[in-house]
Amino acid sequence: MSVAILHYKIYSILAIANEFIKMAENNPGYNQFRIPVPEAFEEVFSHFYFAENKSDTIITKTLLPSYQTVLLFSFGAKPSFRSKQETYIEVDKYLMLGPIKQGFDYSLPPNAEVLSVNFKDDAFYRFFGDVCMADHVPMNPDELLHEDCFNILWHELNQMKDNLLRVNHILKFCEPYLQHRNKIAGQLANFKEETLNPIKSVASQNSQTERSMQLNHKKHFGYSAKEVSRYERFLKTIDLIQKLASTKSKIDWLDIVTECGYYDQSQLIHDFKHYINLTPTKYLKFQQDICNPVT
Q: What does the pLDDT look like over 102-148, one tens digit per residue?
């Protein structure tokens, strides 16, 4: 075993133990933790996520939107998902979801286990070639590749009980399918200058029109730059609210509006209802039942 792999395993085990202890304190019988991604795959996946229900009752949580495409593997009892449009999905073995642009409820019955693979930026396009195929539509990933390989992969993963072994097996499985990153997609994904418009800047760098760059962004990411800008403002708001709530300070919503760049309080409420179908005050009340996939 190489030193790099050994260090990754030690880091992963410590990170999982940390998360496991925190979750076990608040949710007896419900265990969840994130599994970090090795450095070689950091531009492809943001993280892996595992959750299990060892209690005797169905546990329901709300998942915040992530603007990521997620490949979900189910082991044991079948989990289910329900969108705010009341679309109901039950997962048998595996399912592709995304890009996830609105929150939804998920339920884990007793003895359910789920492991999610969270694609980052343009990674879905690099694997499957058409990110729009999965937009808002639950998909069987075998249909995207026109092969039965995910069914085989699920059976192999189902034989494993160690989640780090599962993650390493998934990474090895993915390598042959991963295409080289498109130059423009890489520039858009790595654009960090907050004071500049990424579409205008990258279009200028490549002597393309803004319209052409907008189409490139949608093609490779599955959403527009304008959509993700709005989403990032919402995430900033969520983060600020959680920080203020942890200090037990009374939240001044007008300060939140100003700090996060909303026009007024009604626009703030509109975004919360759009993304998670809750008002900001109700989010504050029920935040312990809400899972944030990006923290």
A: 888 899 999 999 999 999 999 988 888 765 544 545 666 766 666 67
**Does the bond joining 99 to the residue before it have cis omega, within 30 degrees of 0?**
yes
Give the amino acid at 66. S
What does residue 106 show for φ and ψ, rounded to 5 degrees?
-130, 145
Convert the pLDDT of each residue in 208-224 to its tens digit.
999 999 999 998 998 99
Separation of CA 124 from chain center: 12
Q: What is the pTM of this model?
A: 0.80
Cα radius of gyration (the chain): 20
Give strand pairing partners of 290: 62
Instruction: Report the sign of the C-alpha dihedral through residues 37, 38, 41, 43, in that order.
Output: positive
Length of the chain in terms of residues written: 295
Strand 104-108 to 70-76 pairing? unpaired
Buried b / exposed e along 257-293 (16+ C-beta atoms within 10 A) = beebebeeeeebbebbebbbbbebeebeeebeebebb
